[in-house]
């Protein structure tokens, strides 16, 4: 079995999405103490070590910013389980950000047990542009994994989803597209990706993955190619340090 974990970490601020924590810890969006980050990382690492995935895909990780005491969270995640890792800023390469810029250090990342091929690709539209295009061995499969974090703006998100659909069509490979799609209007926004019939929505109808007080939404999405339908299963795992939940994808051999 090959196991892939995806998680939006909410920058490991220790805010679980409840109104109590959003209000009581709102200042952590401006300044997150090292102790809060360390506690969140310990919780994440314990869960990751328990799940022991082959690939861990992370969005909203802080590599060191003005809002978190310039603490690089990546090296302390996962212990010695993942000898392969990568992390990059998610806002594109058009300009170099000052260390004092609010977006400096805000990144996406991956951790892996074995060598793989990972390409940084950048969408044309929106501010959050980074997509990891990963090729890895999954038993006898050559598996392609695209990891995304799409725009909060509906018009930009629509353009990003259409561009993603062209990227998926580049190869008729066994494919997983996973990430925070921010599809506030639901499955209808995913039609460009689903129209060809190559992908299906693996966590459709499952519990919401995002919480803000009493409001719930299925913002984190896993699309899997049809050839994996009989082999793939997905579960949702709570993250007490984030307002998003974790997706765990298992590919049977």
TrEMBL record:
<protein>
    <recommendedName>
        <fullName>Endonuclease/exonuclease/phosphatase domain-containing protein</fullName>
    </recommendedName>
</protein>
<dbReference type="InterPro" id="IPR005135">
    <property type="entry name" value="Endo/exonuclease/phosphatase"/>
</dbReference>
<dbReference type="Pfam" id="PF03372">
    <property type="entry name" value="Exo_endo_phos"/>
</dbReference>
<dbReference type="InterPro" id="IPR036691">
    <property type="entry name" value="Endo/exonu/phosph_ase_sf"/>
</dbReference>
<feature type="domain" description="Endonuclease/exonuclease/phosphatase">
    <location>
        <begin position="39"/>
        <end position="244"/>
    </location>
</feature>
<dbReference type="GO" id="GO:0003824">
    <property type="term" value="F:catalytic activity"/>
</dbReference>
